[in-house]
Each structure stands twice: as C-alpha cells, then as structure tokens.
Amino acid sequence: MQHVPGGNEPSVWQKCSMGALMGGGVGLTIGFIFGSYSIIRQGAGPRGFLATLSQYMLSSAATFSFFLAIGSVIRSDAQLGIQYGHPVFAAPHIASRADAARIIRARWEEHKKRQL
C-alpha cells in the first residue's frame, strides 16, 4: 500500500506537544521517586517537605518534557525522508552477508564511476 504524505498522521506541532506531555508525566514520576528518596535520606530542608518534593518533581518534569518534545520532532523529521522516497534514508532489504557485500560493491563501483 502506498503511503500518502500528510494522510491521517499528526502534525509536527501535535507530535511535539505529545512528546512534551509524555516527558512531563515521566518527569513527574521520576521526580517523585528521586525527590522522596532524597527527602528520606537527607531531610526536607528549611523549605519543608512539600516545597522540596515539588521542586524535584517540577524540575524533572520540565527537563524530561523539553528533551522528549525535541526528540519527537527530530524523529518525525527523520521519517519524512523515508516517506518521500529519498534513497539516502531508504534501507535495502538484506537477507545475508553475501547480499550486503554485493550491495556495498555495487555502491562502491557506482561511486568510483561518478568520481571519474
């Protein structure tokens, strides 16, 4: 089946926001785990339990959400080459080492012809 670009897939902005939401959820969870562990080990500090835990959770959520949003945009950008059929991104089907060697030799010969 032929892939139609822009068919029923989300836009880049939607993918970015989905990555940010997932990163926020993961960051809140990780912040809760590590913040609770840190408070149990070292105490809550002068600001109290809730303020310390929320600082751990929010800073972790912000970091995870930032990087997952960027990662989802980069990942969706890399798939554009495949859907538009760029030969650089299209990986050939390799069944064996002999197939791989044959493909490499053919590419090498083609490259040598272009160099001359």
UniProtKB/TrEMBL annotation:
UniProt name for this protein: Protein MGR2
UniProt keyword terms in alphabetical order: Membrane, Transmembrane, Transmembrane helix
Entries under PANTHER family matching the protein: REACTIVE OXYGEN SPECIES MODULATOR 1
Protein family per UniProt: Belongs to the MGR2 family.
GO cellular-component term (any): TIM23 mitochondrial import inner membrane translocase complex
Taxonomic lineage: Eukaryota, Fungi, Dikarya, Basidiomycota, Agaricomycotina
Bilayer-crossing regions: 20-40, 52-74
Organism from which the protein derives: Sphaerobolus stellatus (strain SS14)
Pfam family, one: Romo1
Subcellular locations according to the entry: Membrane
GO biological process: protein import into mitochondrial matrix; protein insertion into mitochondrial inner membrane
